Automatic annotation (TrEMBL):
Residues 1-26 form the signal peptide. The keyword Lyase does not apply. GO terms for molecular function: kinase activity. Pfam families: Stress-antifung. Keywords: Kinase, Receptor, Repeat, Signal, Transferase. This is Putative receptor-like protein kinase. InterPro entries: GNK2, GNK2_sf. The keyword Membrane does not apply. Residues 34-138, 144-251 form the Gnk2-homologous domain. It comes from the Eukaryota.
């Protein structure tokens, strides 16, 4: 009796707290194609005139025709002056070749120009790359809005064992992605769930943000895995400054990832839950 009453109390308290903080939590935003090839968000802030649209077209087209000598899959630049100034960033998935990167940027910038060119701000998350632009300054600034959660429809075979392994794997990859000093803040790897199921995952930040901001962005994304993709065997947390993805199959170039060991305590239980 006593315990069920205090349980009720805590549930009520939890509901009240959730209700109080709910309005400050950003909404999952944007639309995705049915098969998840890409997700798109044209922002509502400001309508773009002809000159802005011209600048936008020239800027976005430069990404897919750009051939850097030191390819790192990251592009940033600006066009225009004053009210017609646009800043844009493009990031390819860390395991892609320059050719595959260019192909993704060409497709994605075409979709942005078709769907969002009258908007002063927009973002597209495709499977292999992300492109965003804004009238505001965006370089070097950690941005976690808008975001999109994209769960897989399928369930793991063994949910209780799956979740702690997933959490540990994503934590490991997030730490590694944030700690790299190179222009590629990217880590990929896989881990084995007892029973043999495999989880493949990656974590990536845009390299213009610093280590602390990258770590913040990815850690926050890991905590959203439950709301995003709770109990599913795959999913993506997509943000402007960082993204996470996990699947039950090897979706990245096998040379880009390695096996991550999951620590087991003496009792045979997982040592890590968060
Ligand atoms: C994408 O590539 C096609 C074919 O090369 C080209 O016509 C088009 O302008 C490119 N789009 C962008 C946005 O660069
Ligand atoms: C683009 O990024 C590079 C590397 O992070 C940086 O050196 C450069 O200043 C950036 N360009 C602009 C226009 O901010
Ligand atoms: C973007 O534009 C294309 C072609 O106009 C259209 O088929 C597609 O549905 C649009 N995508 C979204 C997410 O609105
Ligand atoms: C991944 O999950 C899907 C859906 O549950 C399943 O059909 C498929 O066999 C799994 N793939 C692997 C490699 O286990
Ligand atoms: C990014 O990191 C800097 C310190 O490096 C910090 O001052 C800033 O608040 C961080 N930005 C966000 C959005 O957390
Ligand atoms: C991630 O896992 C690898 C392989 O198990 C390990 O060597 C590495 O120290 C871990 N890194 C972090 C930051 O946890």
């Amino acid at each position: 009796m006593g315990s069920s009453r205090s349980m009720l109390f805590f549930i009520t308290l939890a509901i009240i707290i959730l209700h109080l903080v709910a309005p400050t939590i950003a909404q999952d935003d944007g639309t995705c194609t049915e098969k998840g090839e890409y997700c798109l968000k044209c922002s509502d802030t400001g309508t773009a005139g002809d000159e802005y649209q011209e600048n936008l077209k020239s800027l976005l087209s430069s990404f897919s025709s750009n051939t850097q000598n030191n390819y790192d899959g990251f592009y940033n630049s600006s066009r225009g002056q004053d009210s017609n100034k646009i800043n844009a960033i493009a990031l390819c998935r860390g395991d892609l070749s320059q050719d595959s990167c260019q192909t993704c940027l060409n497709k994605s910038t075409d979709i942005l120009l078709k769907n969002c060119s009258t908007h002063k701000e927009a973002i597209i998350w495709a499977e292999h790359c992300m492109v965003r632009y804004s009238h505001d300054v965006i370089f070097g600034i950690e941005q976690t809005d808008p975001f999109k959660h994209l769960p897989s429809p399928n369930y793991p075979k063994n949910p209780e064992q799956f979740e702690p392994v997933l959490t540990h794997l994503l934590g490991n990859l997030s730490d590694r992605a944030a700690s790299t000093n190179s222009l590629k803040k990217f880590a990929a790897g896989h881990a084995t769930v007892p029973g043999g199921e495999l989880i493949y995952a990656l974590a990536q930040c845009t390299p213009d943000i610093d280590k602390q901001n990258c770590s913040n962005c990815l850690k926050q994304s890991v905590t959203e895995i439950r709301t995003c993709c709770g109990k599913k065997n795959g999913g993506r947390v997509l943000k402007p400054s960082c993204n996470l993805r996990y699947e039950n199959n090897s979706f990245y170039a096998s040379t880009a990832g390695s096996s991550v060991d999951i620590p087991v305590s003496k009792e045979g239980m997982y040592a890590y839950y968060g």
